[in-house]
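Exercise 7. Given the encoded structure of a 120-residue chain, write a plausible sequence.
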C-alpha cells in the first residue's frame, strides 16, 4: 500500500509509530475516514494554514437551542470538502445524556464506500 499520509492513533490523535519507531502510513479509504475525523475535530479558525477547516463549533453548534438542520448542514459541508469524497450517503448525529455529540457517516469516495463515527 502506498504511503499517502501519516496514520493517527484513533484515541490520542498522535502520529502512529510501528514497533521499531518508524512512522506508519495510511492510504485509500482509511485515509479518507481519518481525514474526515480530523476535519470534524478541528474548530474553524484553529489551524493557521487553513482557517476555514473544521466546523464552526462555537458559533453554529455550541449555541443555545441549536437547530438540527443547521448543525447537520455545517457538519455535511465540512465532510464534503474532504478530498476524494464524492457524495454523502448517510449522516447521523446523536447527543447522549452528557450532551456529547457523535457523528456517524457513510460517504462515497474514489475507493468505494467509507463509514466512520466521530465523537470527542
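Solution.
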Amino acid at each position: 500500500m502506498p504511503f499517502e499520509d501519516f496514520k493517527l492513533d484513533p484515541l490520542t490523535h498522535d502520529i502512529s509509530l510501528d514497533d521499531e519507531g518508524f512512522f506508519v502510513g495510511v492510504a485509500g479509504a482509511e485515509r479518507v475516514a481519518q481525514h474526515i475525523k480530523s476535519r470534524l475535530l478541528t474548530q474553524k479558525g484553529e489551524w493557521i494554514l487553513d482557517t476555514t477547516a473544521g466546523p464552526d463549533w462555537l458559533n453554529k453548534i455550541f449555541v443555545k437551542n441549536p437547530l438540527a438542520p443547521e448543525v447537520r448542514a455545517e457538519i455535511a459541508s465540512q465532510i464534503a470538502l474532504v478530498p476524494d469524497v464524492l457524495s454523502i450517503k448517510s449522516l447521523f448525529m446523536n447527543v447522549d445524556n452528557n450532551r456529547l455529540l457523535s457523528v456517524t457517516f457513510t460517504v462515497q469516495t474514489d475507493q468505494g464506500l467509507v463509514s466512520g463515527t466521530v465523537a470527542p
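Remark. The longest strand covers residues 85-95. Students should compare their own answers with the one above.
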